[in-house]
Amino acid sequence: MGSLNINGRAVTVQAEPDMPLLWVLRCELGMTGTKFGCGVGICGACTVHLDGDASLACKTLMSDLHGQKITTIEGLQGAEAQALKAAWLDLDVVQCGYCQSAQLMAACALLRHKPAPTDADIDAALSHIVCRCGTYPRVRAAIHQAAAKRRPV
Ligand code: FES
Ligand code: FES
User: Fold this and answer.
1) Are 26 and 36 in contact (CB under 8 A)?
2) For labelling, which of 53, 70, 125, 151 has a CA lying 20 to 30 Å from the CA of 115?
């Protein structure tokens, strides 16, 4: 049992120390926006933010959490998130959608750290997130579009 800070709210959970955050989110709290892909840290589908950094929820145990601010796709807000969501819609990025919450979480963390990312920056930040539908070119284009909208003219 412990207390987590999720999307700006203090939440008490019953999970044991060796329970991965992904299970806590999806199974205990019913927050299914964060996806289960592989469960072993190789697909990226479970990406959330811990104190603003993109992190894998399947590789984060309850015992790793010591008050970090956890943000999931359900609570993703702010100027970068808004710009990304608009670009995602504008460029029709999504196909089946399964990987897309992770793509958005990683993209948002990237834009907050690097407001004008290069293709190489995008690949470095997102290449671990597997998209079986092959939306990578549209994800990249949408990040560039969102970044351009965020830059002062
Ligand atoms: S479910 Fe976490 S990396 Fe695949
Ligand atoms: S949109 Fe289908 S897996 Fe990425």
Assistant:
1) yes
2) 70
